[in-house]
What we know:
Strand content of chain A: 15-25%
Structural class of chain A: alpha+beta
Order of helices and strands of chain A: HEEHEEHEEHEHHHHEHHEEEEHEHEHEEE
Low-confidence stretches of chain A: 1-7
Oligomer: homodimer
Largest interface: A-B, 119 and 119 residues
Radius of gyration of chain A: 28 Å
Largest sheet of chain A: 9 strands, mixed
Number of helices of chain A: 13
Amino acid sequence: MAKNGKDKDKIFKPRPISGFLEWLPEVRLVEQKWLASIQDAFESYGFCSIETPSVEEIEVLAAKGGDADKEIYGLRRLAAEPGEEDGGRLALHYDLTVPMARYVAQHFGDLVFPFKRYQMQRCWRGERPQEGRMREFYQCDIDVVDMGEVSLHFDAEIPAMTLDVLSRLPIGPVRLHMNNRKILQGFYQGLGIEDVVGAIRIADKLDKIGHDGVIEGLTGELGLAQSVASKCVELASIQTEDASFADEVRAFGVDNELLEAGLEELTFVMLELAHLKPGTVVADMSIARGFDYYTGTVYEGKLVDYPDFPTVFAGGRYDNLVGSYSRQKLPGVGISIGFSRIFSKLVKEGRVEIGPMCPTEVMVACLPGSARSEVAATARTLRERGLKVEMYHEEKSLKAQMKYASRKGIPYVWFPANVEQSEHEVKVMETGEQAAADVETWTP
Amino acid sequence: MAKNGKDKDKIFKPRPISGFLEWLPEVRLVEQKWLASIQDAFESYGFCSIETPSVEEIEVLAAKGGDADKEIYGLRRLAAEPGEEDGGRLALHYDLTVPMARYVAQHFGDLVFPFKRYQMQRCWRGERPQEGRMREFYQCDIDVVDMGEVSLHFDAEIPAMTLDVLSRLPIGPVRLHMNNRKILQGFYQGLGIEDVVGAIRIADKLDKIGHDGVIEGLTGELGLAQSVASKCVELASIQTEDASFADEVRAFGVDNELLEAGLEELTFVMLELAHLKPGTVVADMSIARGFDYYTGTVYEGKLVDYPDFPTVFAGGRYDNLVGSYSRQKLPGVGISIGFSRIFSKLVKEGRVEIGPMCPTEVMVACLPGSARSEVAATARTLRERGLKVEMYHEEKSLKAQMKYASRKGIPYVWFPANVEQSEHEVKVMETGEQAAADVETWTP
């Protein structure tokens, strides 16, 4: 509002802010349903909700290291006085994993382990504007953290749960691609590669730069022999829907303890997931998931019907993430669903069925000749019976009221008894049928 | 995680951030229930959800004017390069009213009017740290915005809805205090006061500085006659539970059109709310709600059982809020529930009943002698039947498993059939009773 007379006519014309999503009510209604469905599914496994502040201390975010700090949005109090702390040590979180790790360390004594939590919150990344990336987005995370060690059964339950969760959304089948970091590390070590991290980083680009590109990188950048580089690429091409991947890897004849441990772990997890529908789970030696805190099983989820879509979920096992904030050994395993990334892409491509603009089931019309207090009482009674009920307040024509209900996608319009009409009547908007109804017993 | 060997042992010990709430899982579970209950209630009136980005352009926030900009948290990209726009034109919203007004202006052509929306989001205020105020908090808002004018029926429906919403929470009775800005403005104008805004601002401090303080302010600061100042204070002391306030005001003999319009509006709203339980609604001439964008009815909600608590909700009618962003005339009326303020105060005072740590209804135990795949199948079957089910994964003693269930507050523990026990059994944790149960038919 204008501060004074001079500015009275000043209008600030709003425009969308690049990277920050905002939906119309009819899309938001679908988004809410999807989020509620995910939450229900998480809770059906007994996971508890935590919600952390939107901000963390910059030192907490930085403790994880890596390039993440480049994408952080810091906060500053606009009205900070000179010398006053302006909130400059605070920044918006860029994922939910770091806040969860900090939470576990901070509240350690008040939690029960294994600690199973889900968390559905917005995250922020200060991506460069020109990249057109999302700067605010929902993630839906599940993690299990335990003291000392986490049962390997969770390495199977976490992705099974994720697949179950996603099967409740209309996004078609989802395929889980799974690997184990120990396989990659052990295999590379067994081949005598010194810069294992560097080699994995290059091999991880397989789907972007192709086989020849990876071989060029491994021989050129790292100076590996052609035969060694070839083996790395061949390893990455192994994909099996059962535990036979292990024999394919062993056939290379690479002898390494870590490799063998990784093969055993992944075999165990594959067998625990054998009850899932065939084709749902793939042991995929090309999955590396960067190279920061994962130490065992790693996951990536793909939408089968949309092969060009980004990863729908990702995660893995970490032995030392909470260790940045606590001397306790608190390993964990978790998965993060990139909710907004998937939802917004599907919406923008017109692949999400959009329904009404509001949750209303019944609109109670108010026509001349009706006693307003009775109309209001009708709406209250229907509402007390658990229905979602709007009352039309404006004194407008029947036509205007019907147009309102129709545009908003309200399925039923209720006409209370009035001087001209002794019974209540309900109109079904889809068919146009109208019939007498009892306010105490009617159901949609 | 450490970036290199040197930092390996560096631990960043996390601590709470002043002004940013974070709950343990058992409190969060209650918070979720409360928020869900509010959402259900909003939807039972057919209000649609919108969710706006956490940020607005600073110009949008500033367009509302007033002192609000002092409390804004601006964003800056920590990794911004010299000359690059660092997000400096963006700031976190400090309420949900301004974002709603901006949303309506921006999406005007895609909305149906009257536009009824609810919005439950976090807001941020960069309060000075030493004040110990909340810097991140949930608000739950409802507003109706219409083209040209908003039916006065909404002035009654909005607070009725709010009272209904709050009656579903265990916070005891809530009393609505209601006034109309036109009454204050008209009365003051009718008394010949020139600086009406200034006078209302002083009178608004009645409960802080008392009658004498207000009179001192009005006579001293504004130079009003003692008799005029007295009338202002007398007006503010009028409180009635029915529409009789109007006669009490008229008894002053102040003649003013705006005053009369305000009395008529408030009378109308009081009568529309006459169906509510006696004592729930008070026409209260001391309510002013600052003096920024409200132009008609104004509301304040108080917890009857906690008279020292801050306002639980507040709001009013505004004729020109959306006008900061659009040339359309889009008046509205709305209420904002200060969710976190109330919830956190009740929690901290121990007045909220805290239950279990997790939503789990049944924990399926896994004991030696059980085939793991059958245990897992039991958990899946119960889950498919709609129950919230955890499976215990660690190979630990019965005692350890029972301790886990007990500490988390899980009400039932399931023992699948195994080599020693031919039937499934369920233990009721509260009573210790254990009996045979059928996985296909058992209910809690």
